[in-house]
């Protein structure tokens, strides 16, 4: 919780691989092509220079193609040239397996399905898969839904969120501590916004004061990114998912407005778009003492016993709760 309150921490250098992953996701979600400006608008948590560096790195790796439109505007598309066509010195079975894996895209494919589709024996298939892995044409990935399944995809692909579980999963496990931390940070950012507006409160115009206490998700993400609280790069979607939980918890209220009426600086397009704004609200009912008992979310609860190394008699959290 202390990390949530202290947002001014040392800035770390931007991870170029992380930007490239985000760029691939953005370009992949626009199969017809995407302009540079549209990419900037989607990746507001990175500087323009970082995005340009990431695009250049992906063009160099042949993962993206750049095209010029009739109005001379540059657009980007994924380089979908089949790896099977470029595979040299491989036998027909290897090509068949690679083709099946390629068709599965970034959702990957279970080795048993590859076996069923290719009709290659399990023993021979294992050999082919190992061979393709050694050539760095495919990779084995884990799924949060089935950690033991052997799932394969092309080496250069970024695994789909259905496999990784998204930003809130770490090593195939839901990272509840990390979620709590970012949740607390979002709440703190919104509280700081209200506090700063409170200081300059215009009593003659209460509506203007009320409206100024809202923040858009992109503004919250910007503050979070600049504070370097998060160990990974969070997307706007990640933050909005988290903010939604705060809304359901009754800690935050939200409203949807036209971008022309929002205090957001993220939208640069001409057409007004809908923007969701958030504002912290005081709880209507304070939680009861029983609801605040620390044991309910204690990570060492199973090791805690009367007279033990970890015990209620020596527990500082229990003391704090009893003295509340
Ligand atoms: S008494 Fe303290 S250590 Fe034991 S379960 Fe409760 S919070 Fe955890």
Automatic annotation (TrEMBL):
The keyword Disulfide bond does not apply. GO terms for cellular component: cytoplasm; nucleoplasm; RNA polymerase III complex. Keywords: DNA-directed RNA polymerase, Nucleus, Transcription. GO terms for biological process: transcription by RNA polymerase III. It is found in: Nucleus. Gene3D superfamilies: Winged helix-like DNA-binding domain superfamily/Winged helix DNA-binding domain. Belongs to the eukaryotic RPC34/RPC39 RNA polymerase subunit family. DNA-dependent RNA polymerase catalyzes the transcription of DNA into RNA using the four ribonucleoside triphosphates as substrates. Specific peripheric component of RNA polymerase III which synthesizes small RNAs, such as 5S rRNA and tRNAs. This is DNA-directed RNA polymerase III subunit RPC6.
